[in-house]
Sequence to fold (277 residues):
Amino acid sequence: MKKTPTSGKRKTPRLATLDMSLQLDQTVYLRELVRVQERLRVIQQAYIKLGNSAAIVFEGWDAAGKGGTIRCMSAVLDPRGFKVWPISAPRQYYLERHYLARFFERLPPRGAIAVFDRSWYGRVLVERVEGLTSNKDWQRAYREINEFERELTHHGTRVVKIFLHITAEEQLHRFRSRVLDPTKRWKLSYEDFRNREKWGAYEEATDDMFRRTSTFHAPWYAIPANSKKYARVEALKIIAKRLSSGIDLAPAELNQELAKKAQELLHIDPSLLRNQR
Fold:
């Protein structure tokens, strides 16, 4: 069984303590983005070789930049070992089952990385705030989620949890941009505006989520995201660090049978093939 990384002793995140002024200029952003994307490519190849798996959770405010950050990953990773699950309201089939059922079905197999664009934390965020589940159910969910994630890590699946935080003012600015851009209007809904009326309740629910579910084996990472560039790079760096900890990132050795056939058909110098082993 492959061991998952431990987080060490970390302070539980709180939204009020985040430095929302953090940002990157364009030159630094592009340099750091390319660097961490290459690191993620190497990590994926190691996961395929070793049979590791990972579940990456993205939570955050509407328009916080979750989709853009995920696209920075999907742009460089092989889709055969990388899957993005956009999570919305459950259909009737899942409403008749335990709320974790649909997430069990979407967990990554060995050698794969799965990203959840929103996740099982909906139970203690939107369902709590909007009254979509009973107080008893969402209060019990903290324990259920911790046990769920502990079982995942014991099974060898690494769990990385990212929360992208923006201010209410920045969200309003991004909503305005979406309304005025015909290619982005599809991202906006009436509920996005209505949810702003409960901003304080969502902040309270988020801090409670951090406090109750940021664990040794699956800690939360809250990232100030008023600057999209800073948030993307910081999130990918955290993911790369968590996924690579304790992993042999050396590329797979060239199979001897494959090397022999390559030598015959491609007329490659045997010394070059030996250097690949």
